[in-house]
User: What shape does this take?
Amino acid sequence: MNKSIKKPVLAVGPFHPLQEEMEFFQLTVDGEIVTDIDVRISYNHRGIEKISESLQFDQVPFLVSRICGICSASHPLAYVQAVEDIAGIKPPERALYVRTIINELERIHSHLLWVGLGGHFIGYDTVFMWAWKYREPVLDLLEEITGNRNNYGNVKVGGCREDVPNELVPKILKELDQIEKKTDMLTKAVLDDPVLHARLKGVGVLSKEDAVKYAVTGPTARGSGLDIDVRRDDPYAAYADLDWNVIVQPAGDVFAKAVVRLLETFESIKIVRQAITKLPNGPVAVEVKEIPPGEAVGHVEAPRGETFHYVRSDGGNRPVRHKIRAPSYVNVPSFKASCIGQHIADVTLTLAAVDPCYSCTERLAVIDRHDKITHDYQALLKLSREKTALIKKELGLPGIKTEDLQIG
Amino acid sequence: MNQSELNNKLAQIKDKLIAFEQPAANRIYLLCESENAFVVNRFLFEQVPARFVIATGIDSDNCFEIIYHYSYDQTGCVINLKAFIRDRDNPSIESITPFLPAAEWIEREIHDVLGIDFRNHPNLKRLILADDWPEGVYPLRKEVKK
Assistant: This one.
């Protein structure tokens, strides 16, 4: 007899149209407590590593920029850094600054996107709407510089495709001031809100030991007290010339990850402001002829963590092997440590805290031993929101309908 | 540890390696035969200790290569351990997942796409290939057309 059939199973996934990834989580539950987790990925496997072997070196950045619509500056940058390492190419100074600006604008919009979705999951829909509204001008700036809101395709071997026009500098500085003000308001609303403290603290804890064992990266690692950041540890682009801080929080819970992302947004604003002020004159690309045989790695701190590319060349015009590791590939399996022992009402949030995983929740369903769906996505979202409402009641705060006051 | 202390530390496992290459101060390549990969990996993760990044499986002309990438974040040094699997007919290597859970997925992935057996892997089922993908077809092998 198959023992696993007798255990109640919570099926999370496999598809969510809003997010870039599709995943399927199968949670074994005892009552409302999660006792085991199994993950299935690759519903949307596109064979990009194989396709890359059939493209020329200068075509690959446009391919890898499409790995993820949100991190579409980080992947090509990691790739071109590897190729530049093989060929010994030094991009011009201005190109390094332009790369920094594009990558930090990307981090700002990605972190704001996460804050919005996080708010949505606990029933703070105003946070959702506001965060996404403040994110919009960042996408507009990216469009003005590169021609695209996402999939910028702005980086190429030897430099950048599009320059940041000098005429645009005052506008970018003005927008940054606005974004900083709005982010400041959002951050204070989160840090001062007793409901969010009660709802997010101690939930989905990933200990420092587990963070090392699962080799997580980015805000997931920094929220568990690991002081790592590729931008500082192995500097690329113009990061070494600029003054900024790595944000680390020791608690490992959802709250810590939220704080890391919010505070990092300010650091990113600081970086873009400095880079745009110090922008050196000159060309943004050098001419590239042949890529010699060799191998190299390139890595970049994407909004979700380290993006890692390995490229090998045999002297032809295409890579013979191109390995790509996106940060979620190591962050997702850490759920095995952070979800076990959690309440079902906290699972959506714990999965969401790592930031790849809204993909799971649209089709979230609890299945009992007869394979009958007992909780669908709406019911689980309701569970999560009811818990928030309960905390508000216990704290003697206004009910869910006047929640807008909380972030005013 | 600074970079030269790291280099000295890595010298402790020299007898397990075929070669030690350092094309740049913070880029190190360690070459070894597949039988020694487990010991060297364990040394890198537990003794150095370095952060596991990912592994790359490559179908080379006369062997398979697995490159285990580590990052030593204090100096920003990327340490690449290259293990050669010479037996092309029955390629296999010891799994590092028992002491390094972060490697579980990538070993399953390399098993899927290159058909390399990871001995003592706790859960070597399919990760990225579809359920109806034919057995014995490994998409990243050179004989599979692009």
